[in-house]
Specification:
It is an enzyme of class 6 (ligase). The chain is of the alpha/beta class. The protein is built from 19 helices and 26 strands. The structure holds 5'-O-[(S)-butoxy(hydroxy)phosphoryl]adenosine.
């Protein structure tokens, strides 16, 4: 069957010819952009903000911010001054030094960005925490990272078990009427009076920058450490893939609690000196279209689940808005269905460009570019400077059209530096032959386009968020009624997958809808709303291996009415 491809669209793009660049490009060419080419040292926050504040971009808007109660804008010069102030506050009142972990647990607001940049200017490692995390999730992350400083709000502070976190020395609270003592300080009060001159900590390219916790199929969430060197690729992909240009107004809908919200919500746009729109609050289709119209957004980066929700809200709403400002639309996080691409053509008259990458990869790896043909359903081609392949379980490259492990040749600039406190986990990502194994299965067609097929492991992608079944199972087991729990991703037309839990109850507990609701709520308040199973099914017993491991593969087969496969390891 011949696929209907979408031809490239004429325009003056940063990436003019994919093929030419793929054969000629060298990452060394990008390094000249940044200060280390002269001094050997660097700092991400300086390159993202101060560098522009010292040029013609001084009075250009760096940040447009809006939520239900605020509507503000900040120039590059203002962001420079405010982040310097934040840095001074961290230094003077939090004793923050290079390498310390500063965690930020708050909803999107200008203060979140200012605090993040301020901490980076001191050479600290920032750990962003998604605002929906509940106590268990917050504790795991602060404990593993041994965070020294936390920035949070009075509401979210209630979810921080401070007594159980001996490494945590200072908590800066962002809000009004803050009651202070030795440990709890009013952030804004000190920022107000702090000096706007700060001595930046110049670091090496391989020094820690940001710690993102993400889920695997086993164990607790792991801390993926990225270093300042990531800027090379974040800058270059913001140019080639996001195609950011001087006049653009850019909106990335992701929260900085996830990697998209830092790599392309903070670093990419600001490294390129772009005006960045940040919107707080909940998802409402009307508000989203209004954001595009009000700010005249030209480049929009979102996710398939969001597009599908907008699709579901109907095309009538769209007619109320003038969205002709949109120039370039992109997607990440889950498979972008051809149906969504067709919808994008119909309602925006724009191609939606899929991009593939992961928390661990720090920046884009396989993408669709404005200058190239799109094959709907394909993630596109590797960015210049990156080698991708499909390999078998022994690490051998497979020919086109064969399904296997999607792998990337080690050494791209934004590759994670390590897994916090877990070198063995880090090592387990790589084959001795130098391939990084993504955990995704895919194939490459004869034209070099990559096609996503699924996760190799049991990791669940729900509404673009990565959830480890083990974490949910562990939380379920803490519930007094639960004897056994197994968690799978169940295909869902809007969310990609939803979380489904199979639960066996302890003796003496009765199956009921009320109990289901209670168990669901238990995960919601203990872990996070997006990690709570939308479906719970009671079973007398769950399929286990003889060593007692829940066989999720069998649960999935039950759910989808598929053959259960080899059951030789299953207990009787
Ligand atoms: C996993 C990584 C990188 C930001 C968002 C997610 C899935 C990512 C795509 C895509 C199909 C995708 C993969 C990957 N994924 N992009 N374009 N098409 N699947 O980051 O939370 O680290 O999750 O997201 O399964 O392994 P993450």
């Amino acid at each position: 069957m011949k696929l209907v491809t979408l031809p490239s669209v004429k325009g003056d793009y940063n990436l003019k010819s994919y093929e030419d660049m793929y054969t000629s490009f060298d990452w060394k060419d990008v390094e000249r952009e940044f200060s280390w080419s002269e001094t050997g040292k660097v700092n991400m926050a300086y390159e993202a903000i101060d560098r522009h504040a010292n040029t013609f971009r001084k009075n250009k808007v760096a940040l447009y911010y809006r939520d239900e109660t605020r509507n503000e804008k900040y120039t590059f010069k203002e962001m420079k001054d405010l982040s310097n102030k934040a840095g001074n506050v961290f230094k003077a009142y939090g004793n923050v030094e290079k390498g310390d972990r500063v965690f930020i647990f708050m909803p999107r607001s200008p203060e979140l960005y200012i605090a993040t940049l301020g901490a980076i200017k001191l050479g600290a490692i920032v750990g962003p925490l998604f605002e929906a995390f509940m106590e268990g999730a917050v504790k795991d992350r602060l404990e593993d990272s041994e965070a020294k400083v936390l920035v949070t709000t009075p509401e979210l502070l209630k979810r921080v078990p401070v007594d159980q976190l001996p490494a945590l020395k200072t908590i800066f609270i962002v809000g009004s009427d803050i009651e202070e003592d030795d440990k709890y300080l009013d952030f804004l009060k000190y920022v107000k009076t702090a000096s706007k001159d700060l001595e930046i900590e110049w670091v090496d390219r391989t020094d820690g920058l940001i710690l993102h916790y993400t889920s695997g199929s086993t164990g607790k969430p792991k801390g993926v450490l990225h270093v300042h060197n990531a800027m090379i690729q974040q800058y270059q992909t913001a140019k080639w893939v996001l195609d950011l240009q001087e006049e653009d107004i850019y909106w990335c809908t992701a929260d900085p609690g996830w990697v998209t919200g830092t790599s392309y919500g903070i670093f990419g746009p600001w490294l390129t000196g772009t005006s960045n729109v940040i919107v707080g609050g909940r998802f409402k289709p009307e508000d989203w279209y209004k954001t595009i119209e009000d700010f005249s957004v030209t480049v929009w980066y979102s996710a398939p689940t969001a597009f599908r929700m907008l699709m579901g809200a109907g095309d009538e709403i769209i007619k109320k808005f003038d969205l002709s400002c949109l120039r370039h639309v992109l997607s990440v996080g889950e498979p972008l269905n051809p149906e969504v691409i067709r919808w994008g053509m119909k309602v925006f008259n724009k191609r939606i460009h899929d991009t593939w990458w992961m928390t661990e990869t720090g920046a884009h790896l396989i993408c669709n570019y404005p200058c190239m043909e799109i094959k709907p359903g394909s993630m596109g081609k590797p960015i210049p400077g990156v080698e991708a392949a499909i390999i078998d379980d022994q690490g051998n490259e497979l020919p086109p059209n064969r399904m296997g492990n999607l792998a990337i040749k080690k050494g791209w600039p934004s590759m994670m530096h390590t897994i916090w406190n877990n070198q063995a986990k880090y090592d387990s990502y790589f084959f001795p032959s130098g391939w990084y194994v993504s955990g995704d299965s895919a194939y490459m067609d004869e034209d070099g386009y990559f096609w996503f097929q699924g996760r190799v492991d049991d990791v669940i992608m729900t509404s673009g968020e990565r959830v480890g079944p083990f974490e949910v199972e562990s939380k379920l087991l803490e519930h007094p009624a639960v004897a056994e729990a197994g968690v799978i991703g169940k295909p869902d037309p809007v969310r990609g997958e939803i979380i489904k839990a199979f639960v066996a109850l302890l003796e003496g507990y009765e199956e009921s809808d009320e109990l289901k609701g209670e168990i669901r709520q238990f995960v919601k308040t203990g872990l996070a709303a997006h990690a709570a199973p939308r479906e719970i099914e009671f079973r007398d017993k769950l399929p286990k291996t003889r060593s007692g491991k829940i066989m999720r593969r069998v649960l999935k087969a039950w759910e989808l009415d598929l053959p259960t496969g080899d059951l030789s390891t299953m207990e009787d």
